[in-house]
């Protein structure tokens, strides 16, 4: 039996291999015939891909470079020997006009006098430059910073609010007046609400007198943006103070100078000052 089994085993192995070969070759032949039957113009299906590309443009880059250039030009910094223009209009450290010079001549003057070169008016034709010392450059930078701090920034005017009672003490009123003045000097508007004291007999115009006292502590600085008016059914009085405009400040100074020069106006100075502020 064992001998018969060993004889049949190779035969079965060969039959299995032939069957596998037959299946593989049959599949390959069918696929080849199917491809051969396709028309020659048929194309294999492809997936469409959308590629988002940024359009080529130098407009944004030019704007960014221009902004950086303008910022550097306003920094009042030493440009050293990097003079991009061939001919420039030069001024010395005293402000004297040296006329149009070649950049090689400018560099020679810088070395001889131990000076720095800064841009004065780069938009001119030819652009204007100036020779300065290191101390002069430092002073100009400080002056520019002070000018930027003094320039009011554009934006909505903020309003501060302050509420207190009409029976406030003198010391507390002085403290609040100083706080209001600090806000006014920072260009804030200040809304003041004075509540009438309960269970106390006081003049009807006491709240208005308190507001006028606060305003009189800031001559030439503040005025009413909204005059005192009763609110909450007459239980309180509210007003808004603001900083004087440039025109009002000029009018106030002119009034003060007139009063100092005219002895007759000194007697009526308080009335005139009240008219300017109110």
From TrEMBL:
Q: Where in the cell is it found?
A: Mitochondrion
Instruction: State the residue spans of region: Disordered.
Output: 248-278
Give the GO molecular function terms: ribosome binding; translation initiation factor activity
Offer a single GO CC term for the protein.
mitochondrion
Does Protein biosynthesis count among this protein's keywords? yes
Q: Which GO biological process annotations does it have? A: mitochondrial translational initiation; ribosome disassembly
Q: Which residues form the Translation initiation factor 3 C-terminal domain?
A: 159-238
Mark out the compositionally biased spans (Polar residues).
267-278
Q: Which family does it belong to?
A: Belongs to the IF-3 family.
Role played: IF-3 binds to the 28S ribosomal subunit and shifts the equilibrium between 55S ribosomes and their 39S and 28S subunits in favor of the free subunits, thus enhancing the availability of 28S subunits on which protein synthesis initiation begins.
Protein name per UniProt: Translation initiation factor IF-3, mitochondrial
């Amino acid at each position: 039996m064992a001998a018969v089994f060993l004889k049949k085993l190779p035969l079965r192995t060969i039959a299995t291999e032939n069957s596998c070969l037959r299946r593989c070759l049959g599949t390959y032949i069918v696929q080849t015939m199917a491809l051969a039957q396709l028309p020659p113009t048929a194309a294999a299906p492809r997936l469409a891909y959308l590629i988002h590309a940024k359009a080529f443009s130098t407009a944004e880059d030019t704007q960014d470079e221009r902004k950086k250039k303008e910022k550097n030009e306003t920094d009042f910094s030493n440009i050293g020997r990097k003079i991009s223009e061939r001919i420039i209009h030069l001024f010395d450290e005293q402000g004297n006009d040296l006329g149009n010079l070649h950049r090689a001549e400018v560099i020679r003057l810088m070395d001889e006098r131990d000076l720095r070169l800064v841009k004065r008016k780069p938009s001119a034709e030819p652009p204007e430059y100036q020779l300065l010392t290191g101390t002069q450059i430092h002073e100009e930078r400080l002056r520019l910073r002070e000018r930027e701090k003094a320039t009011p920034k554009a934006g909505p005017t903020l309003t501060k609010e302050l509420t207190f009672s009409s029976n406030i003490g003198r010391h507390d009123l002085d403290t609040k007046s100083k706080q209001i003045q600090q806000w006014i000097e920072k260009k804030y508007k200040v809304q003041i609400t004075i509540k009438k004291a309960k269970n106390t007999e006081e003049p009807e115009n006491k709240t208005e007198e308190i507001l006028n006292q606060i305003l009189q502590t800031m001559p030439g600085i503040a005025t009413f943006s909204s005059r005192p008016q009763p609110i909450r059914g007459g239980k309180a009085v509210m007003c808004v103070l603001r900083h004087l405009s440039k025109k009002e400040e000029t009018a106030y100074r002119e009034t003060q100078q007139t009063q100092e020069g005219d002895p007759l106006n000194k007697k009526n100075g308080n009335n005139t000052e009240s008219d300017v502020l109110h």
